[in-house]
Amino acid sequence: MMRTFSFEKLNVWGKARQLSVAIYQSTKSFPDEEKFGLISQMRRCSISVSSNIAEGSGRHSAKDKARFTEIAYSSLLELLNQLILSQDLDFISKEQLDRYKKINI
């Protein structure tokens, strides 16, 4: 039987993973010249959210856990900025941006 880590039981971690999958799917349609720009940034930000939640769950002090949660939240804000820019550049629609804004992580 395989061990289940504490972060795997967190709803927020599962939602963060779903967000990463959605970002990967959305950025597939971005222009090729954004491969090393916005696509890479957005994908790394989305991965950072779930990764920091997971890493923070392994910390022993509440202060350390809170710090990793803060970093995950900051990555979400960075991603939101990039989604807004993506809409400004017509890479995603206003409706897509609104759907991302409604995701409740």
Please outline the helices and strands.
Elements: H1 11-27, H2 38-57, H3 62-88, H4 94-102
Low-confidence stretches: none
Number of strands: 0
- Overall 3D form: elongated
Mean pLDDT: 96
Main beta sheet strand tally, sense and closure: none
Report how far the terminal alpha carbons are from each other: 30 Å
**From N to C, what is the helix and strand string?**
HHHH
Helix content: 55-70%
By secondary-structure content and strand pairing, the structural class works out as mainly alpha
Please describe the structure with a list of short key phrases separated by commas or semicolons.
105 residues; mainly alpha
Provide an overview of this structure.
There is one protein chain. By secondary structure, this protein is mainly alpha-helical. The protein has helices spanning 11-27, 38-57, 62-88, 94-102. Helix 1 (11-27) runs antiparallel to helix 2 and helix 2 packs antiparallel against helix 3 (62-88). It is elongated and about 45 Å long.
